[in-house]
Automatic annotation (TrEMBL):
PANTHER family: ATP-DEPENDENT DNA HELICASE, DNA BINDING PROTEIN-LIKE. This is Uncharacterized protein. It comes from Choiromyces venosus 120613-1. It comes from the Eukaryota.
Length: 125
């Protein structure tokens, strides 16, 4: 079991930056040096028609359906080695305790109630 695999499947965004080639040695912990800004890439909140939901879209699209969230997260990566039960427990914990997840789920409920109404989700961390 890889903690990194669970972390990746539950992420809301992905990291973006310009990486500067940097290598101290060939052993030890991997590190990288960035140049300029560090930012987070975000997929659109509404998935492209015919495509599976992924990352933050899962919290919006399947906002109150834990089983659907887990099933979609299990299908994000083709070489999936995640345990469905563990993923479900972590997802439920995030739904109950993580304000960012709760914000995305609330946005999903607003979108379902008013599908024609434009919505802006602004996160200030």
């Amino acid at each position: 079991m890889s903690v990194r695999a669970y972390n990746n499947s539950l992420s809301l965004t992905s990291l973006g930056t310009t990486e500067v080639p940097y290598r101290v040695n060939d052993g030890g912990v991997y590190s990288f040096r960035i140049e300029g800004s560090l930012y987070h890439n975000h997929v659109p909140l509404i998935p492209v028609e015919g495509k599976r939901t992924k990352f933050a879209q899962i919290y919006v699209h399947d906002s109150m359906d834990l089983d659907a969230q887990v099933a979609n997260r299990l299908n994000i990566f083709s070489n999936n080695s995640l345990d469905e039960y563990i993923l479900g427990e972590i997802t439920a914990s995030l739904q109950n305790q993580n304000w960012l997840v709760q914000t995305y789920e609330m946005a999903g409920e607003i979108l379902k109630a008013n599908p024609e109404e434009p919505i802006t989700l602004q996160l200030k961390c």
